[in-house]
Amino acid sequence: MAPQPPLLTMSGITKSFPGVRALDGVDLEVQAGEVHCLLGQNGAGKSTLIKVLAGAHQPDSGEITWRSEPVTLGSPIAAMRLGIATIYQELDLIEGLSVAENVFLGHEPTSAGFVVRGSASRTATAELLERLGHSEIEPSRLVGELSAAQQQIVSMARALSHEVRLIVMDEPSAALDPEEVDNLFRIVGDLTADGVAVIYISHRLEEIRRIGDRVTVLKEGRSVAGGLPAKSTPTHEVVALMTGRNVEYVFPERPEAGFAAQREPVLKVERLSRRGEFAPIDLELRPGEIVGLAGLVGSGRSEILETIYGARKPDEGRVLVDGAPLRPGSVRAAVSAGIGLAPEERKAQGLLMLESVSSNVSISTLSRFARAGWLDRRTERAATHKAVRELSLRPDNPDAAIRTLSGGNQQKAVLARWLLRGCKVLLLDEPTRGVDIGARAELYAVIRRLADEGLAVLLVSSEVPEVLGLADRVLVLREGSVVHTADARELDEHRVLDLVMEGSLTP
Amino acid sequence: MTQPATAAHKDAPTSAAKSAGEQGGSRRSGPRWDVRTLSLLGVLAVLVAVGGITAPDEFLATSNLQLVLTQASVIGVVTVGMTFVITSGGIDLSVGAIVALASVWATTVATQEFGFAGILFTAVIVGVGCGLVNGLLIAYGRMVPFIATLAMLASARGLALQITDGSTQIVSVESVLDLGARDSYILGIPPLVLIFAAVTVIGWLVLNRTTFGRRTVAVGGNAEAARLAGIDVRRQRLYLYLLSGLCCGIAAFMLIVLAGSGQNTNGNLYELDAIAAAIIGGTLLSGGRGTIIGSVLGVLVFTTITNIFALNNLETAVQQIAKGAIIVAAVLVQRRSLHGDT
Amino acid sequence: MPRTPATSRRALLFGTAAVSAGALLTACTSNEPKDQEQAADNAAPVADDKPGKAVTVGFAGPQADHGWLNAINSNAKSRAKKYSDVTLEITEGSNDTAQQIGQVQTLINKKVDVLVILPADGKALTQVGLQAMRAGIPVVNLDRVFASPQAYRCWIGGDNYGMGLNAGHYIGEQLKGKKNAKVVELAGLDNLELTQQRTKGFDDALKNYPNIRKVARQAADFTVESGQAKMAQLLQAQSGFDALWNHDDDQGVGALRAIDQAGRDDFLMVGGAGAKSAMDAIKAGNSVLKATVLYPPTMAASAIDLARALGQGKGVDGLAEFEIPSSLTLYSAVVTKDNVDQYLPTGFI
């Protein structure tokens, strides 16, 4: 890289919140036109750092230099004026406004200073969307009607509607399908070719290798390595820097293939379908086995799980547990028959965020701890404590507030709920979303152990290696239909990706 | 790990997490005296001091204490029911109208012929009946609580007017009137205050010690998560509006005892008073957290203010301004304490 | 025009039941003509009980959510029923200004002969009063006055200031000679102008009695519940006083309940409006309530009489005038044990 002065230098940045030192001396140097990747586990300080950069948080100490001038990023507007745009992980769009209104929110083209020129912003928005390769998005449509991927494009268009020199992208690929990711990378390439710098945050190492130039690794609020070459630094070195130990993407050992074939299926799904979501599907799940559903976002994976669980009512078909059919569309019927669900949106669908771990774990089993409606809180706490311990949930305290837990431990609390209930079938929808690498391995081990103890597990994940590594059998879905069923060991990632995209086996 | 983690949101065990666990273990029983409750107690203490200074002879008299508690009783019982509904993420705008309807239905000439029991029974049944309609509309008719209870407000008030034709129905059943008289005090405590205390204690136990209470909090905290955890959210909602209606029925009976009559204007703006008391008490308007103790303190704060203003012969307008200021102040304190938690 | 027989002219306009209206006549005319025959000879044609030209009277009032307003409706209805030549078109009462405007417009479109309007809000309904007058429909404005005299042909209503004045004078006379006498006021809804007028009249009357001092005033809101609550507070705040002026007999039910609960009987109480329950209590004489100052709902019956006379183009009996007066302010009589029997039939429930 040419020895020109960096676009952005941050040095010795610290930031504390009540009880937490989120940033404890971070150095970061970004050159114009590069893709600079930020790596770190959850809680390492990535989010706080980019909020400082966006002007949303004020650092306690440290210096920021922008194009060789010391600057203070006192507010989001100040950061935008300099040319720093941020695309947050949680999209900050207003669903009730149109695409164009969102893109130009706060800097609408106006006549006489206050009359919004709607047509001007729509035209400009259309140009931006075309530049992003998504001219099919109508500038006048409501953002609430768009898919998650499309909303991300709108977010990006908003960033580009300013004179931008640096774009920060926080896990932009999390909600995207592979082809969407390709498009994202094309856009990033275009931007850097124009001299714009990109700070790119992702958990996916393979993405960083594809588009990254340099990497800065954060751990516990400190930058432990800066400016590593993204393509050539070995994975184990990066993981070691992030975790402080050498953890690989470890999956627990599987029993030999076909071990469960002799057992009676505990869950049977017969010709289950929902119009517009998935075609009739047949499925058998035997005690002790983990079956994975692989497919793109929108292939009907979550819908299938939720229909089995009774949260959605099927158009036809039925679900049987131990040979007895369930009342369709009734969660309570499914739960009493012994089915449990760890939903995709853990915070929105799974947890009571204001409550304790114990309340979250016991919620499906309350009547067991009650006599005539009165709760025996001692028994309840003892039981939840036991379940929490079995899954080595941290902290080992059922009274801790669930919102203070990491994603992995929150997920364990959901699993503990079903462990306590004593269910036979566990439906897992994206169980490791938002869980960092170290905690994932632990979660995989827990899931396999539950299966070994006799549970039947149905797993949905958008990360193909996860499905292949954890499941015994895999069903590949494309546009609501099962296109292939195989033992997980007979498949590899390329084949699955090929299947979900083409729907035919190519040699 | 070489560095101890700074907070409990790490996957590995840490000293911070362990000590949090020990603290949590020690405070797990009994009511939680959080910042909100304490700040409200502080407000109440300040008010008592103000009352004691501005009207020393009248304010601290036993008879005045009895008066303040009696005046808090009727709206207090309504607020307990409202606290449940708000905790579940709902709202009941019809409480005042239900009190009015129950109080006039229970004081018609025909009802009064059945004496004490007839009046009590009618008031409670009318309250529960209105609650049942609210609950069915919201839980099974899938109406938004705001709209369903607004409709109930309008129609219950209308029906109350129709029953009375605008006239005041004087109660002539002696046993009912006697309940509000001075010589029926038990150990110096007016019977209405005892009813209020009983409803409060039962309300606290139900919210904090029963599956019903836990499910109420779950439905309010995250209805979707509660549904997916296997809770019958709709039935829970039905029961909650029934409960609020029941409280209104009891309150209507208490009002009949207090005012010696039934009138279609009874319970005027109770919905706002009850919501305000619950909110300043610390119950989250968005649901998921509710405190009976806070609500009762909220009611007492408002009643004490009214009392102090009346003892000092200040105008109604000033009372209303003070009430608004207290609501704002309490919510600000709550916000601060919530941020402190995080 | 048929000559009107003298005998029937006594019943005429204000009727036997409308005692308060009688009071108006005695108050306004110092020399009531003794010789009816003679008076009839040189007077304009006046309304009487005999059926005349058929008149359709439109009546629009507020929602009857208070005993007094309910009495207004029933007074109007029973009065109209009395006349075979009067058809009453009565609307569903409403407190919503827009709705009431709509109701009056409907009556205008129906081309009623005369309108009687008790507006929910006098100022807000002025325009629709003007519309009616322009359309040639005479308007009798009942009690709550329109903002413009052009909006009505005749206004008839009570005297809020007079209520306070008479209550003050009654209390003043009762406490005559008592040193350092204290009075307490339980007012009605404070944001209504009539409450301010009642208070002003009361205060003005008390100025005549230097031995009396008003020591406390709290506002209730015309409901039993608020009357009980506010009175309980007043009793707590004032350990000793000699008289209480309560603006409204409905809230007085609650006030009496509070007084009863506090076990107090060391003062006299004067009520307002003239509810039947209050009159019963005055007659029984076993409570602190010794008097009530009228705000007679019979004014609605009188308004029907006026409307009928307007529709038939006749004048008022007992006055020399050819035309019906443009304004009639009723007298707020003080009802005490001595005269309660006379007024009891007008008491509203």
UniProtKB/TrEMBL annotation, chain A:
Residues 8-245, 261-504 form the ABC transporter domain. GO terms for molecular function: ATP binding; ATP hydrolysis activity. It is found in: Cell membrane. One of its GO terms (cellular component) is plasma membrane. It holds the Pfam family ABC_tran. It is a peripheral membrane protein. Keywords: ATP-binding, Cell membrane, Membrane, Nucleotide-binding, Repeat, Translocase, Transport. InterPro entries: AAA+_ATPase, ABC_carbohydrate_import_ATPase, ABC_transporter-like_ATP-bd, ABC_transporter-like_CS, P-loop_NTPase. This is Sugar ABC transporter ATP-binding protein.
TrEMBL record, chain B:
GO terms for cellular component: plasma membrane. Keywords: Cell membrane, Membrane, Transmembrane, Transmembrane helix. InterPro entries: ABC_transp_permease. It comes from Streptomyces canus. GO terms for molecular function: transmembrane transporter activity. The lineage of its organism: Bacteria, Bacillati, Actinomycetota, Actinomycetes, Kitasatosporales. It is found in: Cell membrane. Signal peptide: none annotated. This is ABC transporter. The chain crosses the membrane at residues 37-55, 67-86, 93-110, 116-137, 144-164, 184-207, 238-261, 292-311. Residues 1-31 are annotated as: Disordered. It is a multi-pass membrane protein.
TrEMBL record, chain C:
Residues 1-21 form the signal peptide. Residues 32-51 are annotated as: Disordered. InterPro entries: Peripla_BP_I, SBP_2_dom, TAT_signal. It is found in: Cell envelope. GO terms for cellular component: cell envelope. Keywords: Signal. Gene3D superfamilies: 3.40.50.2300. One of its GO terms (molecular function) is carbohydrate binding. Residues 57-314 form the Periplasmic binding protein domain. Belongs to the bacterial solute-binding protein 2 family. This is Sugar ABC transporter substrate-binding protein. It comes from Streptomyces canus.
